[in-house]
Amino acid sequence: MRDGYVLGLIPETWRFEVTQFPWVRRLLKSRWMPLALILFNVFLFTVILMAGFFGGLTSPGNYNFGIMIVWILWWVLLMTVLVPVFSRFWCTMCPLPFLGEWLQRLRLFSVRYERGRNLYFGLNKRWPKSLSNMWLMNILFLVTTFASGFFTVRPAATFVLLAAIIALSVVLSLIYRARTFCLYVCPVSGFQGLYSNFALMEVRVKDPEICARHKTKGCVVGNERGYGCPWLLLPYAFRRNTYCGMCFECLKTCEYDNMAVNVRPPGVDLLVDEKRGLDEAYKALIMLGIAVVFFVTFQGPWGTLKDWANAATLSGYLAFIGLHASWNLVVLPAIFLFFVWWARRAARQAVPLKKVYVNFSYATVPLGLAAWIAFSLGIILPNGSYLLHVLSDPFAWGWDLFGTAHFPWTPVLTGIMPYLMILTLLVGVLFSIDIALKIARQTFIEPEAAVRGALPILGFLGAMTFGLMWLFVG
Amino acid sequence: MRGQEIVAVSLAVLATVGTIAAALWYDHRRDAGREVVELLAIQPKNGNWQPNEIRLERGRPVRLKIRNVETVSHGFALPDFGIGIAEIKPGEVHVVDFTPDRTGVFPFYCTVWCSNEHMAMAGRVIVTESVARASSGR
Cβ(B137)–Cβ(B40) under 8 Å? Predict the structure, then answer.
């Protein structure tokens, strides 16, 4: 692979600025963006919450608007399009922190700004430094997946989950400043952040020289046109997508129009050797591990596992939690540790094991994302037709708004689905290999040591790919 | 700015409270002028039709909302009024509108072999001239 090129084809530095078009810049600088998108999603989530509330504990999930829209449409869109293409664009329009942010700002549209700073309601405390990382999100996401068997079949479970997230975001918004909830607590924020490093879009500074000369830094402290970065970042120093919620406030506040939205080659942020950490390494492995568990449990041929996840018996459910947690927190990280130890030994370089472990974990991101996309294909292609039903009868009250309430179950492309899954995995592992080779050079410096050190990691990636392929078609 | 803030807040209220109110109003309006009976399709070992006895008044329009709350398919037939639904899939709701034009006791059945006790999955509609229309469970 050529240095400085993604897959040896596209220069890593290649960018296409979308905001060079005046209408795009105008749109993103308008205060209706992203408010209009959020309001639409507030409407959608109101319907989802109603469907969950009225759907109860017993209704099968297949005809419930809440379950279908959240777990069939939203989840699949998130994994297949929103994150890999648009980075954290879901965070741009997410309705879950809407109430909390409204309370903080006491405004929906306009900006509260007096005496050189934005005004906020609430205590505006700083989040504890020890929790300013992905560990809490890692645990919360994993714990949430313990109940995945309920969320997809019991409307009330989806209602409780979403209501709890909204309530928690409101409480934390009143105590902590800005989007602390989204940054450090929201269960779906962590993986979006990590996987957004692979995304094709980014918000970045156009000319760093302008920022260096500019003293007031409206993008950080805010001004009358917008709020200081709600994600508590320094937009002028962005180098990775991880924590950028793409709210576009920095485009509004920048006095020099020096912020841009760019299209870029995939995966370039995974090579940025800055603020890497064990929390993100664990996130990468947990996501890969959960993709395996979900496929085995919900799409595999082992009905017993599905019964365990659905809590058919208490002992089965406890076994599911035990196996699921052990695999993700201990077994898979330990397997990866073995390969990392082997890589370090093969490279014969005195690089700390933790650094090698953390660095190479980013190489698993494309494969993990591909595994989730493949899993998503297994959800949407067989079950997508249910969406037509719930659009016509969202609350299962016998409505038929669009004449599709009794649209028959119609699987799409399921005959070639395993091949599509394999193709997705192969594309993912190709990117993973590319990233692994480059990270090996970053980590071990000396070219020959890098090649020796990369081989065991390629072995890990290959083994995981073959394992997943066996699950898909075996 | 102030005008746009009012528009934004109005849209937020419309998206939340407005949506809930509109859904409830639409459903109420849709059923207006009819006796609405919600009928749960449940196999006999889990409780059978609920309610399995429906009391109606002759001449008063009725809307049956038949909801399958199980994970097996059911069907529905009320032969004396020429009503039949070939299949009600798990989670599905079928709506049947009719006006009982005669008094008497009329059986209804599940028409899909849903379990070993399928033959016992039956209930009855009692149509009277009186105004007492309380529906009773099992």
Answer: no
